[in-house]
Amino acid sequence: MEQIIPIASDHGGFEMKQFLIEKLKESGYTVDDFGTYSNESVDYPDFIHPLASAIGMGNYPLGIILCGSGNGAQMTANHHHNVRAALCWNVELAKLARQHNNANILALPGRFISNELAWEMVQAFLSTDFEGGRHTRRVDKIESIENQDNE
Ligand code: RB5
Description:
Layout: E1 4-9, H1 14-26, E2 30-33, H2 45-56, E3 63-67, H3 71-77, E4 85-87, H4 91-99, E5 105-109, H5 115-127, H6 134-142, H7 145-150
Parallel strand pairs: 1-2, 1-3, 3-5, 4-5
Helix pairs in contact: 1-5, 2-3, 4-5
The structure holds D-ribose (RB5).
The site of D-ribose (RB5) has 8 residues, from helix 3.
């Protein structure tokens, strides 16, 4: 089955995004590029919100987001229902985000890791399954705080 990978960044993650798009295409993935489309300074929520919304609605199973630190992108994405965006900076964390947290978005710090490491992390993230079991109960509790806030 064709796997379509959505990807989005601000200017801080732009160069790495372009690198990852080429690698993903070489590996047979189809890529939906949500921007940004140049090095020009932009506001990361303008590009991250549309991708996170699409993930939250179930349009894609997994996605990739980037900004300079990864923090702004991750914070933005995690405002969306059904989104679990994990900020990772090594391969083991990218795998654990899938295995234990059922993360559906990988957030990368474009200014703090190499392109090669980012690609290794993307491959690990896309090829690792959620372990389920005890982690299902924990992941289910992540969004349950919203109910408590409304009581
Ligand atoms: C942009 O300069 C930078 O603030 C942004 O890419 C990101 O690091 C924000 O969290």
